[in-house]
Amino acid sequence: MSLRLSLTLVAVILASCAAISPAQEFPSKIRGYKVHLIDVHLRTGDPSGKGSGPSLTIGTPKVVSMALTGITIEAAAEIGGLDQEGEVDFMTFKDISANGIPIEVDEYRHPFKLRKGQKIVLPVPVRSSVSSLNLAKAAYQASAAQKDFWQVTGTVFVFGRFKRMGLTFKRVVPVTVTLTIADPVKAIVAGEPR
C-alpha cells in the first residue's frame, strides 16, 4: 500500500469519525435569550444528599389521560444542589427519550425562583405524552426486560434571569439530563387507579 493511499484512507476515517460524533452547537441566542454554555448535567436525586451538583427528584409519574393516540403523563419534580440564584421564566425540552422511546414534553410555562442551596419544588407538574405506537414499544420492552425503571435522557433549555456578582443576566442554559424514573407503563398494565 502506498503512502498516498494510506494517508487518504486515514483522512477518510477521520472525516467519517467527525461526521458520526459532531459537537453540539447552539446559536448565540434562542428566543431572545443569550445562550450560556456551562457544564451542567442533571442527575437523579441522591436520597442521601451526598451527591454534588444539581439534582432532580421526580415524583411518581401519573397517567392523566389515555386516548387512541397515546397517553399523557404528569410528574412532580424537586430540584436541589443549586449554586445559582435567579428566576426561571420557562423551560423547553429537546430529544427526550425513555429507554430509547421518544417522549414529547410540553413546554413548561410556570415561572419559579432559584435559591442557592435550597430545594425547589416545581409549582406545577411537568406534562409529557407518549404516542400509542411508542407506548406499545415501551410495554413490549418492559415485559421482555422485566425493568421497573425507565432511563430518561435529553436536553432541557432553561430560560431565565440568573444572578452573578450582584447583576442579573437574561440567559438560556442547555442542561443535559440523565434520570431514572419509575415505569409508568406498569401502572397502566396493572390497572392502578389514576
Overall description:
The chain has 194 residues and is α+β, with helices and mostly antiparallel strands. 20% of the residues lie in helices and 46% in strands. It has 3 helices and 15 strands. The strands form 2 sheets. Strands 1, 2, 3, 4, 7, 8, 9, 11, 12, 14 and 15 form an 11-stranded mixed β-sheet that branches. Strands 5-6-13-10 form a 4-stranded antiparallel β-sheet.
Task: Reconstruct the topology from this structure.
Elements: H1 3-20, E1 29-30, E2 33-35, E3 41-44, E4 55-58, E5 62-67, E6 70-75, E7 77-80, E8 85-98, E9 101-102, E10 104-105, E11 112-114, E12 120-121, E13 126-131, H2 132-145, E14 149-164, E15 167-182, H3 184-190
Counting helices, strands and paired strands, the structural category is alpha+beta
Shape: elongated
Helix content: 10-25%
Radius of gyration, CA atoms, in whole angstroms: 20 Å
Mean pLDDT: 74
State the low-pLDDT regions, or none: 1-23
Count up the domains. 1
Enumerate how many helices there are, as a single number: 3
Tally of strands: 15
Task: List the helices and strands in order.
Answer: HEEEEEEEEEEEEEHEEH
Strand content: over 45%
Q: Main sheet?
A: 11 strands, mixed
Euclidean distance between termini CA atoms = 67 Å
Provide a compact summary of the structure.
The protein has 194 residues and is an alpha+beta fold. The protein contains 3 helices and 15 strands.
List keywords for this structure.
alpha+beta; eleven-stranded mixed beta sheet; 194 residues; 3 helices; four-stranded antiparallel beta sheet
